[in-house]
Design brief:
heterodimer; A: mainly alpha; 0% strand; B: mainly alpha; 6 helices
Chain lengths: 557, 198
């Protein structure tokens, strides 16, 4: 494929002044720039959330530690959870979706470019609002200066009586505002995938990344909206004196739990399905084989989306529901294991018999496969109501969902960073630093989250700011905290690699991986209009067809 | 980017995709429906759970006239869009304006009902669970009617200055989808608040 024909001459005039360039970035409606803004914004918050996690773990490194006060500890775990879910993983997934979907489906931009910019800035201001609480949260009462109600903010902790000052209001408003942004982006993704595909790209020929992000966006539309509604109710309670979650007036605290988890569980799939999407693009390219079982992958994803909407109350087994409810939610939770298992087998079958190249993206995706499997297994354990009664709200739960979010989502996300960095920046990343990042992070991850299961089984509850010596928890907590430093070192290597490669890296060329989807057919970084001529595709791997005209895919699909 | 066309025998397949406007609006409607679902569920769950009065059966009167106004506005906006796409600008402007009037009458009805409840019956959002859920649900709907009216009024303004042409029929139709949704939500709210809840 001739990429030289589209190499546009580099501008020889002097670059425009900094203010002008900044102005261009702030006012941009280009999906690639907005995607990069989303990603950079998420990386900033990744650092913040990471610092908060480190503070938590330093406090717990030994019994009766006094690194931070209990009040600060509460604020740190609330901010850590809220930041990582809403202002790191969601924006970074939206960023990649924004950047990649139009390129992959052969479009020039998203369906609604201005809505896209609006959504990004809503999310960005939501994050600022959350962190402004450190300054503005005091209110008139001299109360706590950052939200300290936990990331799921159970009633009645959020009532005026127990959450004085404005810290909880900042939490509510920031999630409300960023929620509007998320819904806007989700609508945009759905409209883009359905309406902007290039000629020949039928739904059965769409890259899996587009399919999976379509599912993710559908979940955002249906799941983030209930959170928005619940936040409005909480605002009514706090500002207008309503009684939605006020048990003194007949309201129900359990109602909040239901409303939160109706959002909260599909949210897990909102985060993990784009991670599946990365794995589904990276694993075939580095195994040099087409994805195994494309239609089944799509069907399994849809299944996960549907079943994922009906499992929320498995977060509430310890609350005490009826046995009918318990049974239903145990069974529906077990059911999610089936499509997820199908996906794992499909990825394995893709690798099976392939020529596997263990470049950094593939290393991360391979680790993801095994770690996500373990995360799923502990998920099945916790999905059983009796087991959950024993270990609910313990460190076992924390270990389980960090295995999902770090071991599953973050690992593929790093893979995606390395895989698409050459496309986004035009430069190749440093492979040695990439491998160093992988091994540091891999060791740190396993030190932290493998050993975190043990104090959970030994009975250590979540969200305690310290513990007595001699309960058998000491050594495990020590190991867990040591792992954090490996992870932090890995993240620093990662950031250094991105920065160094951006400034000094070798030119990557348009298709460094010999890949098959349309984004690799345009230059790196792509021009503002993406494709001079809108491409036309005949199969799921259009670039394979171009490179191998003697044996094109469309003869077999 | 020159993508050398890969010639395939049946290159002449028909290539159609959905239009982005309606798709975007359907998604927005799905999101809004989810929001209303949560408020409706809360309303139904809290029926009869108020610890103090007033109770719905003591104070609520069924707003039949205003409901007829709102529901018939779905008909008028439909006629307006039809007139626009067939180029009858005067009848479009008229039907569109009538839609706004009907919506505004409905809002006035809600305002009158609220003023009656607050000043005569002493029911506010703070009084009891019924007050909290009632004002939130009906208020959320009234808020959506208000947004719709603002959008409709903007189109009317453009019509007044001659900026709306038959080519805009599709956009008007997307807006009318939102308006139909607001009407459908009212049917649900009406059933839940004035029939089931009373």
């Amino acid at each position: 494929m001739s990429t030289e024909s589209i190499a546009w001459p580099r501008p020889t005039v002097a670059p425009s002044p900094l203010v002008e360039r900044l102005h261009e970035w702030v006012t941009t409606v280009d999906h690639k720039r907005l995607g990069i803004l989303y990603i950079l914004y998420a990386l900033l918050f990744l650092l913040l959330g990471g610092v908060e996690a480190t503070i938590l773990r330093i406090q717990l490194i030994r019994p009766l530690n006094n690194f931070v006060s209990p009040q600060v500890f509460n604020r740190m775990f609330t901010m850590h959870g809220t930041t990582m879910i809403f202002f790191v993983v969601m924006p970074v997934m939206f960023g990649f979706a924004n950047y990649l979907i139009p390129l992959m489906i052969g479009a020039r931009d998203m369906a609604f470019p201005r809505l896209n910019a609006f959504s990004f800035w809503m999310t960005a201001f939501g994050g600022l609002l959350l962190y402004f609480s450190f300054v503005g949260g005091d209110g008139l009462y001299g109360a706590g200066n950052a939200p300290d109600v936990g990331w799921f903010a159970y009633a009645p902790l959020t009532s005026k009586t127990f959450s004085r000052g404005h810290s909880t209001d900042f939490w509510i408003l920031s999630l409300l505002v960023s929620g509007f942004g998320s819904i806007g982006t989700a609508i945009n993704i759905i409209a883009t995938v359905l309406c902007m595909r290039c000629r020949g790209m039928t739904l059965r020929k769409m890259p899996l990344l587009a399919w999976l992000n379509l599912t993710m966006a559908g979940l955002v539309v249906l799941a983030v909206s209930p959170l928005t509604a619940a936040q409005v109710m909480l605002l009514v309670d706090r500002y207008l004196g309503g009684h939605f979650f006020d048990t003194q007036a007949g309201g129900s605290a359990v109602m909040w739990m239901h409303f939160f988890w109706v959002f909260g569980h599909p949210e897990v799939y909102v985060l993990v399905i784009p991670a599946f999407a990365f794995a589904s693009e990276i694993i075939p390219v580095f195994s040099r084989k087409a994805i195994f079982g494309y239609p089944v992958m799509v069907a399994a994803t849809m299944c996960i989306g549907f079943i994922g909407m009906s499992v929320w109350a498995h977060h509430m087994f310890t609350v005490g529901m009826s046995s009918a409810a318990n049974t239903f939610f145990v069974l529906s939770t077990m059911a999610t294991a089936v499509p997820t298992g199908i996906k794992i087998f499909n990825w394995l079958a893709t690798m099976w018999g392939g020529q596997i190249h263990f470049k950094t993206p593939m290393l991360f995706c391979t680790a993801f496969l095994f770690q996500f499997l373990i995360a799923g297994l502990t998920g099945i354990m916790l999905g059983n109501a009796p087991f959950n009664w024993q270990l609910g709200n313990s460190y076992f739960v924390i270990a389980h969902f960090h295995y999902v979010i770090v071991g599953g989502i973050l690992f593929t996300l790093f893979g995606a960073f390395y895989y698409w960095f050459p496309k986004m920046s035009g430069k190749m990343y440093n492979e040695t630093l990439g491998k160093l990042h992988f091994w540091l992070f891999f060791i740190g991850f396993h030190l932290t989250f493998d050993f975190m299961h043990v104090p959970g089984i030994l009975g250590m509850p979540r969200r305690i700011y310290t513990y007595e010596p001699g309960r058998g928890w000491d050594i495990w907590n020590f190991i867990v905290t040591i792992g954090v430093f490996f992870q932090a070192a890995g993240i620093l290597v990662f950031m250094a690699n991105l920065l160094w490669s951006y400034l000094r890296g070798e030119l990557a060329g348009s298709d460094p991986w010999d890949a098959w989807t349309l984004e690799w057919s345009t230059s790196s970084p792509p021009p503002a209009y993406n494709f001079a001529d809108i491409p036309e595709v005949k199969s799921r791997r259009p670039l394979w067809d171009l490179k191998h005209p003697e044996d094109p895919d469309w003869q077999y699909e | 980017m020159s993508t050398p066309a890969i010639t395939m025998p049946e290159a002449d397949i028909r290539w159609t995709r959905p239009t982005r406007g309606p798709v975007g609006m359907y998604c927005l409607i799905a999101a809004e429906a989810a929001i209303f679902t949560i408020f409706v569920v809360a309303y139904i769950f809290y029926i009869g759970k108020s610890l103090t009065g007033p109770q719905p059966q003591d104070v609520l009167r069924v707003p039949i006239f205003f409901t007829i106004c709102l529901l018939s506005s779905s008909l008028t906006i439909n006629l307006a869009v039809k007139s626009l796409s067939s180029g009858k600008m005067r009848s479009f402007a008229l039907w569109w304006f009538l839609t706004i009037v009907l919506g505004a009458v409905f809002l006035a009805g809600t305002a009158r009902e609220w003023s009656h409840l607050i000043y005569d019956e002493g029911l506010t959002i703070q009084t009891n669970l019924f007050g909290t859920t009632y004002y939130s649900l009906v208020g959320l709907h009234a808020f959506h009617v208000t947004i719709g009216l603002l959008a409709l009024a903007t189109v009317s303004l453009f019509t007044l200055f001659g900026q709306v042409r038959p080519a805009h029929a599709e956009r008007a139709e997307v807006l009318s989808m939102y308006w139909h949704f607001v009407d459908v939500v009212w049917v649900v709210v009406f059933i839940v608040v004035y029939i089931v809840g009373r």
